[in-house]
Amino acid sequence: MLNAYIRRGDLPGAEEHLEAAIAGGLKPSVVVYTSVIDALAKAGNAEKAVAWFERALSDGVSPTIRTFNAVAKVFARKGDKQSVMRLFSNARDAGVTPDDVTHLAFIDVNANSGNVKGVLAYLDRMRRNRAMPNVYHYASALKGCAKSRADMSATAWGLVQRMLEEGVRPNTIVYNMAIKACVIGRPQTSEAAEYLFRHMLDSGVVPDRHTKIYLGNVVGPSRLQELAESLGVPLEPQFLPAAGRAGTAV
């Protein structure tokens, strides 16, 4: 019954159902608590997710790593590094072993604030602990480069190279974040963005709308059109220079 509420997105109904079960003398399992916490976290309801996590603890439920991860994602999205660290300190004390999602939360909390130094340090920490980063960890790390106000184009390319060395295949999001790092960094680095775009195509990774937006923001509409034509990449009318759009309309 609880899962039915969650599947249709009726989170208030799920909470009421759980409250009624507890009031009726039932003791929900950690799986039940985690399902509600995770659903609330994914819906962006941080306060209620944390409240149910604390309720589970007060009811004597031992959280699993999935429970800790659900709450950690809430704090990571807010860039609340101290809360993430405190949460997983509690997890370690409880004998709960971190997994890939845990590592992603630590990278995310640094990436969301543009703390590239923290991102790189945590990736190194993972490797020292023989937990090899996957494509999601790298995508988040590159998001940190994209959020930095400094020129992170060299760092972004270095992360892509490290992925390849470790046998992790970059995807569209990885390249998009790397190119976006060239957009946001000051000064904008058009050569690096073009190089990443060419490497993306050479690697067989298909660019999407965001790729073209980020690349166009660095090199400009005219150069984007030149690159697209020379490399055989379809370019939708909205990405063409004004004259090109007018010609298309005719």
From TrEMBL:
The UniProt keywords, alphabetically, are: Repeat
TM segment ranges: none
Q: Has UniProt tagged this entry with the keyword Repeat? A: yes
| Any one GO CC term of the record | mitochondrion
Q: A Pfam family for this UniProt protein?
A: PPR_long
Which GO molecular function annotations are given, in alphabetical order?
A: mRNA binding
Q: Where are the PPR repeats?
A: 29-63, 64-98, 134-170, 171-207
- Its Gene Ontology biological processes? mitochondrion organization; RNA processing
Q: What is the name attached to this protein's record? A: PROP1-like PPR domain-containing protein
Specify the species: Alexandrium catenella (Red tide dinoflagellate)
